[in-house]
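Example S7 (structure tokens).
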């Protein structure tokens, strides 16, 4: 299979647009790892490599950059600059990312957990394995098993800022969330962009979904309530995530210009998982205590 540009859902809203990607729907694999590249000096290049077994989807969350791919039949340059398009990169494709615009952010979703044995960082070795028609087998661990009591009543004390990994390099920083080590398995990713500064988003809670909210670009505030107390968090660093378990009401506002809100969640989309009425929320979580 060759690399291909995929059109992603774009939900238009005057309060800001939304695009989502979830297991087996927008991508032909289950998400096992998500990482994003940021603070890349304009015009820089991220070094090339290939994966023996991993498939990827690469999205320009902010700004633009080029992805140069080679399936063994010559290089092809693909420019990414729209949040509602993603480049699918199958295994054993040599790729590098370059021509970054200032303040660009690249989101990469991967079909495998991190394993250094899956990387081919030498182009000659990649060509040798590709021409041989195969590559050494890399055994991946099974999918993460997440045991959680969804009947548990969460409060604001269960919400917190999580310091994610931050790998710094002169040609950009990288932050990763890997299902093998995360608080919950990521099954769906969505992001808000083109948000007017005076808009408010959110205004709901989830019966099951747990979430990380990250300011991938710019800044915004998240106000949480458990029906008793209220707390505001200001997000402005792409390596800090606000962890929100199920049963917590949230709203987002005070968006800076050009901000992007990246959300990683534990559940596939289901409207039944949303509580969008504040009065119903209070009936369930406040009066029901």
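Recovered sequence:
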């Amino acid at each position: 299979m060759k690399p291909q540009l995929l059109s992603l859902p774009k939900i238009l809203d005057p309060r800001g647009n939304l695009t989502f990607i979830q297991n087996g729907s927008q991508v032909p694999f289950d998400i096992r790892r998500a990482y994003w590249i940021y603070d890349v000096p304009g015009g820089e290049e991220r070094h090339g490599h290939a994966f023996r077994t991993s498939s990827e989807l690469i999205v320009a969350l902010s700004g633009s950059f080029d992805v140069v791919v080679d399936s063994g039949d010559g290089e092809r340059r693909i420019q990414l600059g729209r949040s509602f398009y993603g480049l699918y990169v199958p295994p054993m494709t040599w790729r590098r990312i370059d021509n970054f615009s200032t303040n660009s952010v690249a989101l990469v979703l991967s079909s495998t957990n991190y394993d250094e044995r899956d990387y081919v960082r030498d182009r000659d070795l990649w060509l040798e394995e590709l021409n041989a028609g195969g590559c050494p087998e890399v055994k991946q661990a099974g999918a993460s098993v997440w045991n959680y009591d969804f009947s548990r009543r969460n409060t604001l004390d269960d919400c917190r800022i999580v310091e994610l990994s931050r790998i710094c390099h002169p040609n950009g920083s990288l932050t990763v969330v890997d299902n093998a080590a995360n608080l919950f398995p990521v099954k769906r990713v969505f992001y808000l962009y083109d948000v007017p500064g005076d808009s408010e988003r959110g205004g709901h809670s989830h019966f099951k979904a747990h979430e990380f909210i990250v300011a991938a670009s710019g800044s915004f505030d998240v106000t949480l309530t458990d029906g008793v107390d209220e707390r505001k968090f200001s997000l402005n660093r792409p390596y800090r995530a606000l962890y929100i378990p199920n049963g917590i009401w949230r709203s987002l506002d005070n968006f800076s210009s050009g901000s992007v809100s990246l959300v990683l969640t534990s559940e596939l989309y289901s409207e039944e998982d949303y509580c969008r009425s504040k009065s119903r929320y209070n009936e369930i979580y406040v009066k029901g205590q």
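Notes on this example. DSSP finds two helices and 22 strands in the chain.
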